[in-house]
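Input sequence (199 aa), recorded before submission:
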Amino acid sequence: MNHLFAARRLGRLSLLAVVWAIAGCGPPTPATISTPKSASAPPPPPPLSSGAETALVQADVRRILTATMEADYTTLLDHTHPKLIASMGGREAVMEVFQSTAVAESLRKVRFEEVTFPQSPTFLKGSQNEFVVVPIRLAISVNGRKGASSSYQLGARPVGTPKWGYLEGSRLTRETLMKLFPDFPADYELPTKTTATTK
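Predicted structure, C-alpha cell format:
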C-alpha cells in the first residue's frame, strides 16, 4: 500500500514534469535492460558519440514526447529507465497513476507545436553505466497560451548493452541522480531548464 501511495505521488509529479518541462523518461518487457532470451547474443551497440547513437537517442526522445501527447502510457513506460519505475513502486503502480483522471486532464491541456534539438547529445561513461544527455527545445501550447521550454532527457544503460532508459531531466536533482546512478560523472554539470510564455 505504501508503494502504491508513493507511486501515485511520484508518478503524478513525474508525468506533470514531462508535461510542463519537456512539455523532461521517466519513463523502458522493454522497460528492463537485459539480454533477450535467445540463443544468439544481440549485436553490440554502436560506439558512443557516433552518428548512429545520436540518431537513436533523438528518435527515442521523439517517441517519448509523442507517447506523452497521445496518452500512450505503454510506450512511455517502455522508454522510462527501470530504476525510476522501481523507485515508484513498479510498472503496474505507475500505469495506474498515468491513467488517473488528474494526469489525463493535464495532458489534454498541452500540445507540442514543434520539437527541436538545439545541441548534439552529450555522451558520458561511468564505471558501470553509459549516459547520454539529450537537450530539447519545445514550442508548446497550454490552454491556448503559447510558450517555449528548454530541457533535456537523461538516458542511461549498463555498459555494453544497446537499449537506453530515460529520465526527464528538468526536475532531476544531483542527489536523486547519484542515488540512482552512483557512477554518474561527478564533474559533469547538468543543463538548466527554462520556460517562457509568449502569448
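Checked by second reader. The chain has one domain: 2-32+44-197.
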